[in-house]
Specification:
- 67% of the residues lie in helices and 0% in strands.
- The protein has 11 helices and no strands.
- Helix 1 packs across helix 9.
- The longest helix is centred in the first third of the chain and has 45 residues.
């Protein structure tokens, strides 16, 4: 009897948790491969090229071929590098791109951890990405890698301030830190309409957070070669790339939750309401991932002084101003949540 209780009380719940985690992690890993393939196809279409077209039908097996190639390559560690931190940095970056999904609701109550402070959890996870980049630059024992890490850290910290004010505005409108309740608060009107300026600031800040064009200054070829990851090769380099794509998908999912109604359909009418909520969530996330891809194929790279000026002299005062306007309007009209 005691042994039976042990299995029911400890082992079975643990297995269920592991199953839930795998049910999220495995699709995210597949999504990373799909997004990497889709990006190359989209850029090829924008530039009148073919893109991946050799490995498999329409080049669909190209991500598998690339993964096998990097897996079989030798991992080269510089002689002066700190071996433990050098290998730990890409693991940190990749892990942070996955653990944020623990609180993302894919549908009503379809979430691994429905905690009351979901937004704070996501903000904390996104802030930790700076450590992986700084560790990678310092542990490489390379001036170029370290300068790239400093650039990236300054860039990420600068735009996290604006994202913080964006989150405050959404909290004022929803009256909750719980992501499920934030989505429920958008049943009448998605937040991207009344909070349109903050939605734009979030999307542009997300580009800077993930070091994507036009804010990919840490990888400036003319000065820093490959930036903080210049000394990495094989699977350690792949973990950085997978972490970047996982973060892109994560930030797109967060934007869907905060501004685009999460799993809610565009209109509460049939047959839209009969479509499963997870389908709407995935469709909206895919549109925002396309936005990330489109910007990389469209805009040129900023200068670093332009990047910092935009963050501190434009986005910071603009987001702070909109927080004040939102709070004042909601108080004036009695819209503050009870």
């Amino acid at each position: 009897m005691a042994e039976s209780n042990f299995w029911l009380d400890y082992i079975l719940p643990l297995l269920l948790i592991v199953g839930y985690i795998l049910a999220i992690v495995v699709p995210i890993m597949l999504s990373v491969a799909i997004v990497s393939y889709a990006e190359r196809k989209i850029w090829a279409a924008m530039q009148w090229r073919k893109g991946p077209n050799v490995v498999g039908p329409f080049g669909l097996f190209q991500p598998l071929a690339d993964g096998a190639k990097f897996f079989l390559k030798e991992t080269i560690i510089p002689s002066g590098a700190n071996r433990v931190l050098f290998l730990l940095a890409p693991v940190i970056m990749f892990s942070l791109g996955l653990i944020g999904w623990a609180v993302i609701p894919f549908d009503q109550h379809l979430v691994l951890a429905d905690i009351n402070v979901g937004i704070l959890y996501l903000f904390a996870v996104s802030s930790l990405g700076v450590y992986g980049i700084i560790i990678a630059g310092w542990a490489s024992n390379s001036r170029y890698a370290f300068l790239g890490a400093l650039r990236s850290a300054a860039q990420m910290v600068s735009y996290e301030v604006s994202i913080g004010f964006v989150l405050v505005t959404v909290l004022l409108a929803a009256g909750s830190l719980n992501l499920n309740e934030i989505v429920e608060a958008q049943k009448g009107l998605w937040f991207f309409i009344p909070l349109a300026p903050m939605f734009v600031i979030y999307l542009i800040s997300a580009l800077a957070e993930t070091n994507r064009t036009p804010f990919d200054l840490p990888e400036a070829e003319t000065e820093l070669v490959g930036g903080y990851q210049v000394e990495y090769s094989s699977m350690s380099w792949v973990l950085f790339m997978m972490g970047e794509y996982a973060n892109i998908i994560l930030l797109s999912g967060i934007a869907v939750i905060l501004f685009l109604g999460g799993w809610l359909p565009p209109f509460q009418v049939e047959p839209l309401t009969s479509v499963p909520g997870i389908v709407w969530f995935l469709l909206k996330t895919s549109v925002l991932v396309f936005f990330f891809t489109w910007t990389k194929g469209t805009f040129p790279r900023y200068r670093y002084d332009q990047l910092m000026r935009l963050g501190w002299k434009v986005f910071l005062p603009a987001s702070l101003f909109w927080v004040v306007v939102t709070a004042g309007a909601m108080h004036l009209f009695g819209w503050l949540p009870k």
